[in-house]
Write a structure and sequence with these properties.
51% of the residues lie in helices and 8% in strands. It is built from nine helices and three strands.
C-alpha cells in the first residue's frame, strides 16, 4: 500500500513512446521471426524496420488493416465508455488514445470479457491487480477503466514514461520486464506492444487531423 502510494505520488510523467534522452525506438523481426522492440539491438533486425518515434515524437507504428478496423470500433464505442476514458485519462494524466488502444487490444470493448488466465473486463484486470487498484466491481466499465488507467500510471512512473516498457509490463508483468531488461521476448507480449502502439499512433494521427 505505501509503496503503491509512493509510486502514484512520483508526479506526472509525460507518457511518450521513448523515454527522455533515448534514441530512436523501432520494431522489426529477427532471424527467428520474433519481434524486436526498443532502441537497442538493431543489428538483430532482418528485413524491414518500422520507426516508432524519437524523444517523444511518435511515428506510425504497426498499422495494417486490423488496427484500422479497431480504430473504427473505437469511434463506434458506446459514449459511456468514452466518457469513462476521458475522466480516467484526465485523472491519471494519460492520453485518451492510449487508454482506447489498450482497451481495444485487451477486450475489444467487451465489458464481460474474461481471459483463460482470469483477466476480467474492458481493461482485462487480473484479480490481484484489481484489488491493488481499488477496483470493487471489476465488471463495472467505469471502475474497470479507472483501475486499468491507474495501473498504467503506476507502471509509467516506474519506467520513467517509457511507453514500451509500460505496455510490456501491463501485458506480461513487471517481473518479466525486469528480467528481460525491457520488452520480453515473448511473442505474445511483443505482438501486444506492437499492436497497441499501432492503434495509439493511428488514433493520435486521426485526432490531430480533426477526424475524430
Amino acid at each position: 500500500m505505501s509503496r503503491l502510494a509512493a509510486t502514484l505520488l512520483l508526479g506526472a510523467i509525460a507518457l511518450t513512446p521513448a523515454a527522455a534522452g533515448a534514441g530512436d525506438n523501432f520494431a522489426c523481426k529477427d532471424a527467428d521471426g520474433n519481434w524486436v522492440l526498443g532502441n537497442v539491438q538493431r543489428d538483430r533486425c532482418v528485413g524491414s524496420v518500422k520507426q516508432l518515434g524519437s524523444r517523444g515524437t511518435p511515428a506510425r507504428a504497426g498499422g495494417g488493416s486490423s488496427s484500422a478496423a479497431e480504430v473504427r470500433a473505437i469511434l463506434l464505442a458506446p459514449t459511456a465508455y468514452r466518457e469513462h476514458v476521458r475522466r480516467a485519462a484526465d485523472k491519471y494524466q494519460l492520453a485518451e488514445e492510449l487508454l482506447h488502444a489498450v482497451m481495444a487490444v485487451e477486450s475489444g470493448f467487451r465489458p464481460g470479457a474474461i481471459s483463460q488466465k482470469g483477466a476480467m473486463g474492458l481493461m482485462q484486470l487480473m484479480p490481484d491487480t484489481a484489488r491493488m487498484m481499488y477496483v470493487r466491481d471489476v465488471w463495472s466499465p467505469e471502475e474497470n477503466i479507472d483501475g486499468g488507467a491507474r495501473y498504467l500510471r503506476v507502471l509509467a512512473n516506474q519506467y520513467g514514461g517509457d511507453l514500451m516498457k509500460t505496455l510490456a509490463a501491463y501485458n506480461a508483468g513487471p517481473e518479466a520486464v525486469k528480467r528481460a531488461g525491457g520488452v520480453p521476448s515473448y511473442p505474445e507480449t511483443q505482438e501486444y506492444v506492437r499492436k497497441v502502439l499501432g492503434i495509439y499512433e493511428q488514433l493520435k494521427s486521426r485526432n490531430a487531423r480533426g477526424d475524430g
